[in-house]
Design brief:
This protein is about 70% helix and about 0% strand. The protein is mainly α.
Length: about 200
Amino acid sequence: MLNDKELIEAIGGGDEIAFKTLYSMYSNMVYNTALSILQHQAEAEDTTQDVFIEIHKSIINFKQDASLKTWIYRITVTKCYDCLKKQKTKKRFAQLTALFSGENKLLHDKPHFEHPGVALENKEHATVLFSAISKLPIKQQTVFTLSKIEGLSYQEIAEVMNTTVSSVESLLFRANKNLKLSLSDYYKNNLADSASISALRLLIV
């Protein structure tokens, strides 16, 4: 098994088998991160492809000032941001077309999202949670996803987002505060006697 340095050098030299090895190692990580941020399976799949196209194109210039994993997370987050910008443009266009269509609903709304990693009995609650996450400011959303869903340390998140640990801590604190506020009524009305409360609330601490 090649180590990261050997893998990078092999891919930079045009070794397609080495690139397939890297894809098999990191594709699930990239897809799961993109899915959690974008909350749309087709867009997460497209973004995953974009990430690996970028990796293939840019790895020869990778300076190894961070770990390979951190670098791939960084590309993933950047590509997700690009996709979210496109979503906002589409939404603005949808609002305009809805105005001229004479209807009171958006014509290009995203379909209902369910995270495939959530147990069936928790899907309803998780849908509410992910909806609340999607309404966070993008940096709060990213920090929350990388910390609570991907399990990265504050230091790793700081490297991915090119910021400081204290900034990561501040963003996560504000994300938790905003989520608790937006979900307080839902928890009170729907989860008081539910066994799933502990699994979902553990995310927001």
